[in-house]
Amino acid sequence: MFPAQCQVNAPVFNFGRAQMSSTAPPIYSNGLISVTCTRHPQDRLRVNVEFDLKGVVVQEPPRQMRDQIGGAFLAYDMYVDAARTRIWGDGSPGTEVFTGVCYLDEKNRVCTLPFVLYGKVNGQQAAIPPGPFLGAVVSRVEYRFLNCQP
């Protein structure tokens, strides 16, 4: 039996509609991603759940999204700060993770911590025909139990 379980709540991240060309400015957007930890129903159980929320970078930054046909790509990235200087990743050199702690007991059986995720599609990319582009970011939550007391 684990004293708690945690999960990532990651909605679709939307950059909206814009035209890309060699003179286009960057496209900015942001959204929320959160971690929810739920305590095991055992009576009088108290536990602190410490976690790292990671964004797995499949290729070297910047990330890429592609059009439906698969022939056109747009470079973008996700950041942990509004200035868009710290890339969200797995904590490897050059990337950052979100961290948090949930305190769970009889009164607080569920804890949700939200984090703002900042995105940027790089400007001045080659002219690309308009249309939907898709990209995937794998997120992972790694958590540890501290001060678990029955």
> Which CATH class?
Mainly Beta
Share in helix: under 10%
The main pleated sheet reads as: 6 strands, antiparallel
Q: In one word, what is the shape?
A: elongated
Strand proportion: over 45%
According to CATH, the fold-level topology is: Immunoglobulin-like
Q: What value does the average pLDDT take? A: 90
The Rg value, from CA coordinates, equals 19 Å
The count of strands amounts to: 11
Q: Strand order, biggest sheet?
A: 1-2-9-5-4-10
**Name given to the CATH homologous superfamily:** Fimbrial-type adhesion domain
Task: Explain what the structure shows.
- The protein is an all-beta fold.
- The mean pLDDT is 90.
- A hairpin with a 5-residue loop joins strand 4 and strand 5 (73-79).
- The protein has a single domain, classed as Fimbrial-type adhesion domain (Immunoglobulin-like, Sandwich), CATH 2.60.40.1090.
- The protein has strands spanning 4-9, 27-39, 46-56, 63-67, 73-79, 87-88, 95-96, 98-104, 110-121, 133-134, 138-149.
Give a brief outline of the structure.
Helix content is 0%, strand content 53%. The chain is mainly beta.
Ordered list of secondary-structure elements with their pairings:
Blueprint (H helix, E strand, L loop, with lengths): L3 E6 L17 E13 L6 E11 L6 E5 L5 E7 L7 E2 L6 E2 L1 E7 L5 E12 L11 E2 L3 E12 L1
Parallel strand pairs: 6-7
Antiparallel strand pairs: 1-2, 2-9, 3-8, 3-11, 4-5, 4-10, 5-9
Keywords:
six-stranded antiparallel sheet; 11 strands; three-stranded antiparallel sheet; Immunoglobulin-like; mainly beta
